[in-house]
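Hi support team,

I've been running sequence recovery on a batch of backbones for a student project. Most finish fine, but this one hangs at about 90% for roughly twenty minutes before it completes. I'm not sure whether the input is malformed or the queue is just slow. I've pasted the structure tokens below so you can try to reproduce it. Let me know if you need the job ID as well.

Thanks,
M.K.
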């Protein structure tokens, strides 16, 4: 496989992962955070696309997103804030990771 990820593979992964997204309260995800397997996706990124690129091992995307602070392991500070605010997060599993995204949307309760 070349450095450029095959777009057909990404399209298939996006469709599969999109069907697997769900909203979970942070309180139900803390045990996974404790094992270091929860990855945050910044709200400016499309979570399904990011998950597809992680699943496809798109090293360039992952590295660039991590350097930009848009993708990475959930920090203790994020975890404490999400616990205090009792947030619901969009989630998708890309083994061994659980990708989460916090989108502040007042219309969602």
């Amino acid at each position: 496989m070349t450095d450029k990820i095959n777009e057909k593979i990404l399209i298939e992964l996006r469709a599969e992962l999109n069907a697997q997204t769900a909203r979970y309260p942070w309180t139900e995800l803390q045990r996974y955070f404790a094992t270091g397997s929860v990855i945050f996706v910044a709200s400016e990124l499309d979570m399904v696309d990011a998950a597809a690129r992680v699943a496809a091992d798109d090293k360039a995307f992952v590295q660039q997103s991590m350097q930009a602070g848009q993708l990475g392991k959930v920090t203790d500070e994020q975890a404490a804030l999400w616990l205090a605010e009792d947030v619901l997060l969009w989630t998708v599993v890309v083994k061994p990771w659980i990708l989460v995204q916090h989108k502040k949307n007042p219309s969602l309760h």
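--
Follow-up from support: It reproduced on our side and the slowdown came from queue contention, not your input. The chain has five helices and five strands. No action needed from you.
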